[in-house]
Amino acid sequence: MNHLRNKVNLMGRLGTAPEIMNFESGKKLARFSLATNERYKDKNGEWQDDVQWHNVNVWGKMADRLEKLDKGQELLLEGKISYQSYDNGKGEKKYSTIIEVSDFLILNKTAPEVKQ
């Protein structure tokens, strides 16, 4: 392995409709949460769901494609993990993990009705 890379692939559902932000510089950002789900059997043989929530940023022209999506839409995305820190206004430093998307696919689009 010659190159160590920061790369992540996720398939999940939008937790909310993407928040679209337009900046004076002309850049556009779509922010949203993505839920991923894994099922497993616990020690008692009961099925359990492990839902993880990911904070996601999509920049530029790709953000345009997300403007009309709504909560529950399924996405497959590729990107990298980014760590950010900020002051919460109370003098406390907070940290967040963001998935910065480089490409994505919209899954489960509503298929056109087939007439027979």
> Number of helical segments?
1
- The number of distinct structural domains comes to 1
User: How much is the average pLDDT?
Assistant: 90
CATH classification, class level = Mainly Beta
- In the sheet with the most strands, the strands line up as 1-3-4-6-5
Provide an overview of this structure.
It is a single chain. This protein has 116 residues and is mostly beta strands. It starts with 7 loop residues before the first strand and ends in a 9-residue tail after the last strand. The relative contact order is 0.24.
Features:
116 residues, 5-stranded mixed barrel, 3% helix, mainly beta, OB fold (Dihydrolipoamide Acetyltransferase, E2P), 1 helix, disordered C terminus
